[in-house]
């Protein structure tokens, strides 16, 4: 058996596993990126096979079918990712907003730092989100943090329901 047929066998054997990964699995950005990169890699592999062995009707048919399946799985993966992020977004949205800067009456946190990015709030002047445990973070920073950890980066209190 030649390499390209083995490669198609490999993809076919892996597809059910990739497909079985749940919304919970892809909530973690690292898992999601890894899976997306894997799909891109096998997609490229299929393109190469079609280029060099496309004259073989059997190989061509099988490669094209796998390419279609990967395409539809990728769409499924993106939807899972969106579904996984919506609750996190709601969790951050529901937090109290704290304005930064003297004019908005929030100067007391101007010199404090968001521990996720280590930047003082006064630097960008971007409003902060206040957690239930009373800690301040940028919206984007805490949202990104929640994608892999449901607890407060400072005091470890659980803030998200997952
Ligand atoms: Zn930050
Ligand atoms: Zn906290």
UniProtKB/TrEMBL annotation:
Positions of the RING-type domain: 114-156
Keyword Chloroplast: no
Molecular functions per Gene Ontology: zinc ion binding
Gene3D superfamilies, per database record: Zinc/RING finger domain, C3HC4 (zinc finger)
UniProt keywords, alphabetically: Metal-binding, Zinc, Zinc-finger
Name of protein: RING-type domain-containing protein
Taxonomic lineage of the native organism: Eukaryota, Viridiplantae, Streptophyta, Embryophyta, Tracheophyta
């Amino acid at each position: 058996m030649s390499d390209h047929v083995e490669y198609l066998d490999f993809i076919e054997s892996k597809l059910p596993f990739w497909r079985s990964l749940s919304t919970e699995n892809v909530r973690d950005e690292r898992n999601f990126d890894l899976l997306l990169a894997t799909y891109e890699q096998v997609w490229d592999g299929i393109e190469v096979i079609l280029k060099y062995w496309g004259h073989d009707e059997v190989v061509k048919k099988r490669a094209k079918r796998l390419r279609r399946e990967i395409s539809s799985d990728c769409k499924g993966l993106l939807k899972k990712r969106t579904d996984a992020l919506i609750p996190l977004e709601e969790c951050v949205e529901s937090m109290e907003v704290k304005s930064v800067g003297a004019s908005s009456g929030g100067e007391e946190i101007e010199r404090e730092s968001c521990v996720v990015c280590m930047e003082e709030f006064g630097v960008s002047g971007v409003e902060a989100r206040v957690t239930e445990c009373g800690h301040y973070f940028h919206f984007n920073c805490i949202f990104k943090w929640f994608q892999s950890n449901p607890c407060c980066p400072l005091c470890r209190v659980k803030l998200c329901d997952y």
